Amino acid sequence: MSDLVLDALSWVLLSLGGGFILVGGIGALRLPDLYSRLHAASLTDTMASLLIIAGLMLQAGLSLVSLKLLAILAFLLLTGPTASYALANAALQSGLKPKAEKLAGNDAEGVE
Amino acid sequence: MILVFSVFLLSLLVITALAVVRTENLFVAVMLLSIFSLLMAANFFVLDAADVALTEAAVGAGITTVIFLGALALTADQERYGRQASRVGLLVVSVLAVLIIYSTFDKPRLGDPDAPVHQHLAPWYLENTPVYMDFPNVVTAVLASFRGYDTLGEVFVVFAACIGVLFILGVAPGGKVLERDDQDSGLKHHLIPQVVGQLLIPFIVLFGLYVQFHGEYGPGGGFQAGALIATGVILYALLQGETAALKAIPRPVLMGLVIGGALLYGSVGVACMLMGGSFLEYSVLHSNPIKGQQYGIILIEAGVGMAVCGALLSIFHAFAARPIRL
Questions:
Q1: What's the rounded Cα separation, in Å, for the pair B94 and B98?
Q2: Do A82 and B192 touch (CB under 8 A)?
Q3: Any idea what DSSP says for residue B144?
Q4: ipTM score above 0.85
């Protein structure tokens, strides 16, 4: 019984993670400028890796595999947001302005 | 299921390759090549070639990208149009493509147990690795001992490539050069990458050492370990500036690693000859032939790791030290 519950829970987590990746992918394609795309991609990516690895750990049970997955999760949680920060920072430093600023500057006219 | 995944990965590979050809921005091309390598690594992994996957991920997606970016920093980042493609070229390429695709029909199917590759030497390797070496990773046994000559050749190629790159890039360019202010080099003023990077570097190097010394038991070995350790040091150079990285591991040490690695490999072979065996016949290194094989493999893997790590770092520093031409 508890096996079934664990299995169901892990699949719920895995599907949720997949859903987050899908939403992030759609956002990265559909949103207007780099910063909002990055926002969509990076936030969902962090959440999805958390959910998927949690789901996989439930599948693996208490074993060495779970420990390895935990290490991978720690690595992803550290590097993912850092990479997003570095990307956004590099874009800002090379002079790419967020679109929102343009909108605020000349009201509604700035919409492309 | 695995077939669906393979087809998915392979079609992504084709799409990425086409995108690399089509893009005119070289920076984008470099990033796409990195993605290509990562997909390729996943592909190798699906085909159960974990050792190759590890190499492809570390070298192809990691270090090659950094070296490409270093090269891009010295040149323009937009492709310059050359002569328009000729019809003859298209014709030659199409004929060759048709020929190659036609010839694949003669290939045995993927995973066919009757394929020549599974009939000839592979069963012997699989059977005799436990007998001669007594460790599970057949890839390491084949690479380091059964086909030790090939790997020696590869190490010498790495050595020669490193020397060649240093010869080409070591020449000071003519014309005005932009003096690089070392204060700006590296990401010293960016707290987040700084902190996270510093945290990760020891683990990257530790993982490299694990891959180096665990190569007999799991996927890994000198090539992968050398690339991983070099990645850690390059990350340090990107964070702290090139001067700090050179202070940590100075150029003579790097050259010593390259030369010493190749020399170590070669001298293990000579030592085998002196002890009464033939070149690279490790069994004579110890009274117990199995122990001898294991010692020999550990030594030559160390040589491979040293040579690869030193060569990759020397090439990186050669690119990074080159002044930007105005």
A1: 6
A2: yes
A3: I
A4: no
pTM score, two decimals? Answer: 0.83
What spatial distance separates the first Cα and last Cα of chain B, rounded to whole Å? Answer: 54
Structure tokens that stand for A88 in this block: 């956004």
Q: At what angle do helices A64-93 and A34-60 cross, to 10 degrees?
A: 180
Report the distance separating Cα B20 and Cα B31, nearest Å: 9
Check CB contact of A15 with chain B, cutoff 8 Å: no
pLDDT in tens, B31-63: 999 999 999 999 999 888 888 999 899 888 889
Q: Which residues on chain A are in Cβ contact (under 8 Å) with B193?
A: 82, 85-86
Question: Alpha-carbon distance B298 to B282, whole Å?
Answer: 10
A85 Cβ under 8 Å from any chain B Cβ: yes
Q: Residue B152 and residue B154: Cα distance in Å, rounded?
A: 5
Q: Is B177 left (phi over 0), alpha (psi -120 to 50) or beta?
A: beta
Contact B41, B60 (CB under 8 A): yes
DSSP per residue over B155-194, as a string?
A: HHHHHHHHHHHHHHHTSPPSS-EEPPPTTTSSSTT-HHHH
Residue B292: pLDDT band with limits 50, 70, 90: confident
